[in-house]
Amino acid sequence: MGGIRVWMFVAAAAGLSSAQTPAGSLSQLTPVRKLVLAAETHHVQGIDLDGERLWVTSVDSSKRKGYLFEFSLTTGALLRSVEVGQGERFHPGGIATDDDSLWIPVAEYRRESSAVIQKRSKRTLEVESQFEVADHIGCVAVTASELIGGNWDSRRFYVWDRQGRQLRTVANPTENAYQDMKFVSGQVLASGLLSDRSGAIDWLEYPSLRPRRRITAGNTDHGTPYTREGMAVRGGLLYLLPEDGPSRLFVFRLDSGRIR
User: Fold this and answer.
1) pLDDT of residue 24
2) CB of 107 within 8 A of CB of 93?
């Protein structure tokens, strides 16, 4: 199978012809590797990574605890872990990173509740700052100047500045219940589950958040939708972490690093 050129998903904006637009299916991407994470991950929520480390958020609902894990991206070994919740807010969601920080929503485990958006140090994993939101926030993406959050099943998007001042809200124009989002090459890349419980990854224009393209996704060999939970993109590779423990990281090749 040859890798599809995901940068063409912005074909209309870039003036590319429709003939260059690839078919939208995860099955057309080239699988690169599977990495088993060597620790109990409970119920996986979100992921992000750099060249050496994979960060994973998860929740243990029976113990009412939320976690941030740091794994080796080479071996899958657990390097560090910290609890991220406090009181009723123990449900971390889909995460995002920038140069030095991890951005993590930690919410009550119910719709229309409340959350805090934590900014944590990559170096220490400690909280550097945080702000409160009067809704359950299940995932975030980060731009150079703004944060984008999706509430429970991402029926509504929130946009804040980096100090937590709300700038606007936008209704999700799709049926996709996004679980993890990233800001990639000027667009929001968001993965989640459709109403029939199949999976999909969408490219959304920014700042309008209108859908541009979609990759549909099937199930792993364990029967779990690939886009059930964690998703990240780096260096031309797509990373998906759909399964609870034992969790496996699935890596697919995109296009020669066009999306980083």
Assistant:
1) 84
2) yes
